[in-house]
Amino acid sequence: MQFMSKSPKDFLEPFERIKKLMGYGTQKLGSKRVFSITDPGDVQTIMHSSSVIRNETMRSLAGDGLIFSDGKKWRERRRSLQPSFPPSKPEFHAAEVNWALDGLMTRLRAFDEASESFPLLEELLRFTTRIIYKVAFGIELPVDHGLGPLLIRFFDTAAETSMKFIDSRSPVDINMMRQFPSARREIDREIDSIIERGRRDTVGEEHVLGVLLRMELENPDFTDDDIRDELRSFLLAGAETTSNVLTWFFLLMDSHPEQRQAIELELDTTSETTLLDAAILETTRLFPPVWFISREAIGTATVSEHTLQVDDWAFICTYLVQRNPDYWDEPNAFRPDRFAPGYVLPHRYSWFPFGGGRHLCLGKALGELETFEAARTIMRSFRLVRSDSEPLVPRLGIVLKPMDEVSMRVEKRTPIV
């Protein structure tokens, strides 16, 4: 196994497979050289260099959508879709988030009343999926929609398949990889139904789907395949990343009761969320939404003592960059005080959970809003507590998440005031 936790906090230690992967140094992947990047200064060089672009690793799995493309196509689509996610208006999608959050709280109350445990990641994915469907596709999913297994199967099989590109020296789950083509076909059938519904209902251009359908009408070169690629990207970037951050956050709250109690006291007795905000930011330092970023050189770029040549790859391990001991004291400890009001980062790229440079995450404001509102609302009413002590094993792929579903129970909380 990649990692077995022996105590409630052992999952804070760096996962062995990631340490081993980054310990290889410069690797050969076919005819390409692959450089491992864990220093913030090198990250800044890569992220802002015009000589380094996104490579084809993930495009071969999830399509040529916005989160995997680059160059002219990426610029044109980013420009067209940015108005749906205005960075200067962090509350732009508050109504949609609150709508989905009402549904999540209804389900948590039902689990509490029935004294039932529930699968944390699946439940949080149900919540974030409702948001992305409403925001991006103009579709209101029911509170008990059953898309979770379909999405998880696609995400997990894509994750396992991606590891053969990322870590060719370690064994992969062949059975999981064999399921990827059928999982991709299943998700594409769901995407086709979304497109058909958007055309039928004439979805507005306040939604991503409406913008894409208009682009198809205006540009004969823009096809249904392009729309599928973009919707697939939004499902991946908009649903799984935020649900994973919230999963790690509640696991950290469960394993750090003193921190949790301090946040509860703050929520009960003040209108502030200073401690909660810091705990969420520290969660994204320890468990970034995307644990790696890959780039390919189309010119020369110098990082530390190495010079990337054309076709070389740079593998940026966000997970380890944000735990670099040269920049963080006790890098593997959960210390929200690092993000107390007025905090100053030790380096611009010592913490970059939403990427950086020209590819800063399009949905950053929405992801932050979902995370902070969900954590605040849930913690005001409930404690989420692990139902078992099963060891946490990571699944590495496009995102970093527990290999197996985490069972939790809901404990209703009585506010102090």
Quick summary:
The protein is an alpha+beta fold and 417 residues long. It is globular. Mean pLDDT is 91; it is low at 1-7.
Keywords:
417 residues, alpha+beta, 3-stranded antiparallel β-sheet, 49% helix, disordered N terminus
Calculate the mean pLDDT score and round it: 91
Summarize the biggest pleated sheet. Answer: 5 strands, mixed
Output the radius of gyration: 21 Å
Low-confidence stretches: 1-7
- The end-to-end distance, rounded to whole angstroms, is 46 Å
Strand content: 5-15%
Kindly state the percentage of residues in helix: 40-55%
In the sheet with the most strands, the strands line up as: 1-2-8-5-3
SSE ordering:
HEEHEHHHEHHHHHHHHEEEEHHEEEE
Characterize the structure shown.
With 417 residues, the chain is of the alpha+beta class. It has 15 helices and 12 strands. It has helices at residues 16-22, 40-47, 59-62, 71-81, 94-114, 120-137, 148-166, 174-178, 180-201, 208-218, 224-255, 257-269, 274-286, 318-321, 364-381; strands at residues 27-29, 32-37, 52-54, 118-119, 293-297, 301-303, 306-308, 313-316, 382-386, 394-396, 400-402, 407-412. The strands form 4 sheets. A 5-stranded mixed β-sheet has the order 1-2-8-5-3. A 3-stranded antiparallel β-sheet has the order 4-12-9. A hairpin with a 2-residue loop joins strand 6 and strand 7. Helix 5 (94-114) runs antiparallel to helix 6 (120-137). The chain is globular. The chain starts with 15 loop residues before the first helix and ends in a 5-residue tail after the last strand. Mean pLDDT is 91; it is low at 1-7.
